[in-house]
UniProtKB/TrEMBL annotation:
Belongs to the GST superfamily. Residues 86-210 form the GST C-terminal domain. Residues 1-83 form the GST N-terminal domain. This is Glutathione S-transferase family protein.
Amino acid sequence: MIDLYTAKTPNGYKVSVTLEELDLPYTYHELDLSALEQKEDWFLKINPNGRIPAIIDRDAGDFAIFESGAIMMYLADKAGRLLPTETEARSRVIQWLMFQMGGIGPMMGQANVFYRYHPEKIQPAIDRYQKESRRLFEVLDRRLAENTWLADDYSIADIANWCWVRRHEWSGISIDGLTHLQRWMQAMAERPACARGVNIPPDSEIVSDSERAKEISKFVDI
């Protein structure tokens, strides 16, 4: 059994989708980020960085893992799926996983901050992060013009990138003209495990984008 500590964020969804795809039994625990639950001592013992997601593998002596990419690799290895063992195939998956970890995630995250959450609209910052995110989307589009999935087969690399790219409108980033990216996004959205995973934790009530932005702005810098 896996204990998943998470919240309604792209990084959190990366792990819940992975768990759903691998059909691994898990229990999720939603942290209240606005109440700084992720900074409490009990959680810092699981993740010293005070961020979600994190997991505890109860079947492995309560082994704790933090950082979404590291969790995804651990789970894929545990289940023997979504991450090849052959050296070159494994490397291709990890390369595209790191592309999300080092590029898509940070750039879209900063676009979110300056486009949605920051009380002052700093247009040069908005332009910088939206344009860089769009450039990264174009890299994905070129790759997907030649491949059905980002690596040889469907993998954790697809899950990681999709969980962020699917929220492009929230970041103010257009995907117009990126036909291969759009095809891939539709294929991902149609996977039952993906649909289930991005509803963990489920929304307990309908919250408008403006209300969500206002709430997130309280803790965007922590």
